[in-house]
Design brief:
Structural class: alpha/beta
Helix content: 10-25%
Strand content: 15-25%
Mean pLDDT: 97
Radius of gyration: 21 Å
Largest sheet: 7 strands, mixed
Order of helices and strands: EEEHEEEEHEHEHEHEHEHEHEHE
Number of strands: 15
Bound molecules: NADP nicotinamide-adenine-dinucleotide phosphate
Distance between the termini: 15 Å
Number of helices: 9
């Protein structure tokens, strides 16, 4: 079969200032068909198999964003939505990859993509029958974020009480396991939305407790969950994926010299409401450090971290498998709809789109 000469792509047509809109006259994204030019030397044509769904993508398309305050150039109106994907090489003009190879790359929301082979990473078969989609999650940027955020940014140690928001999500579910099983932290408490997710965080991931932030008794439950003794009731490390009211509450629960790992703030990504920090003065009185970071700061650690994870998997300290992923099989025309599930709390573990056909 000869390679395709056209591809469908999802284009950013209307940068959102609140929740992205998928229907109506002025949708955030529009599906278009584009001609594919012939390959030149050093290029590959790849077919998209799986897409990584990341809350960060929402920041890259925000209306009125100041590019100087973003860590990557924002996506321009009228261009393809950026995303990482797992793809198959269908044509190659590079000696680095051949037809049939499976790779990870910045494919974007495009069924077929022409890529410079230098920007593409091989995705060889994983041992133990582990699905290659984990290159987009636990064994990719998600795992690197979780490990470096916990160990380098948060400096979590065995004697620490660690709290993780978004604990049932892609990053949070790795942080819980790293803190509890790899670092052996004394008390590890998750925060997640709903009883079922909390049960999974405790029973499958091994958290000492997980607290439902949607429950009326959330504040009381969290105080109880983090209480180790009369003397030790505050939190040393808070790994925050959510921001907003949960961050504010946690500032009031940090121990003296506690570290807040500012990884994400998904509760605010679709909102224009200013964040009120009632507990800001605790930052001063308790000498709390709020440490922001971006996973790209730690790219040089990627190989080392995958090695640590492989060893931890073989020792039974880290679970990476079907349970860590929420794979949704969907037609290419449903790609934005699946991505929006991130903001509905539909996923447990990493949200992956499997492209039908
Ligand atoms: N700094 C970095 O380099 C870096 C790298 C990767 C990710 N991040 C950030 O880390 C966070 C987690 O990313 P991820 O990829 O692991 O995705 P994820 O946690 O799987 O994100 C989806 C989950 O977020 C929660 N959520 C959605 N809307 C929420 C809201 N309004 N309030 C509270 N929770 C909400 C939901 O869980 P519940 O059902 O529990 O609400 C949902 O299942 C994001 O903020 C992301 O931007 C940062």
């Amino acid at each position: 079969m000869s390679p395709p000469t056209q591809t469908r792509q999802w284009i950013l047509t209307n940068p959102p200032s609140s929740l992205p809109v998928l229907t109506g006259d002025n949708p955030t994204f529009t599906l278009r068909t584009k001609d594919l030019p012939p390959l030149t030397d050093g290029q590959l044509l790849v077919k998209l198999l799986y897409l990584s769904n990341d809350p960060a993508q929402r920041g890259w398309i925000a209306a009125g964003i100041n590019p100087k305050r973003l860590y990557v150039p924002p996506i321009k109106q009228g261009t393809v939505m950026h995303a990482r994907g797992l793809a198959e090489v269908v044509e190659s003009k590079s000696d680095k990859f051949k037809k049939g190879d499976i790779v990870t790359a910045s494919t974007g929301w495009s069924e077929y993509t022409i890529l410079d082979a230098k920007t593409v990473q091989p995705a060889p078969k994983l041992p133990g029958g582990l699905a290659r989609t984990h290159y987009l999650g636990a064994l990719g940027f998600t795992g690197l974020t979780a490990y470096c955020g916990t160990t380098i940014v948060g400096e979590a140690k065995a004697e620490d009480t660690v709290v993780v928001s978004g604990a049932a999500g892609a990053t949070g579910s790795m942080v819980i396991q790293i803190a509890k099983k790899i670092l052996g932290c004394k008390r590890v408490v998750g925060i997640a939305g709903g009883k079922e997710k909390c049960k999974w965080v405790e029973e499958y991931l091994g958290a000492d407790r997980c607290v439902d932030y949607k429950s009326e008794s959330f504040h009381k439950d969290l105080k109880e969950a983090t209480r180790v003794s009369e003397e030790k009731e505050y939190v040393d490390v808070f790994f925050d994926n959510v921001g907003g009211e949960i961050l504010d509450f946690m500032l009031g629960r940090m121990a003296k010299h506690g570290r807040v790992v500012a990884c994400g703030a998904i509760s605010a990504y679709n909102s224009r409401e200013p964040l009120k920090l009632a507990h800001y003065s605790d930052v001063i009185s308790m000498r709390i450090q709020i440490r922001g970071f971006i996973v790209m700061d730690f790219m040089d650690k990627a190989g080392e971290v995958v090695g640590i994870f492989k060893k931890a998997i073989s020792e039974g300290k880290l679970k990476v498998g079907e349970e860590n992923e929420h794979v949704v099989e969907a037609g290419f025309e449903e790609v934005p709809k699946v991505w929006m599930k991130l903001f509905e709390g539909a996923n447990t573990g990493k949200l992956i789109t499997k492209i039908k056909g």
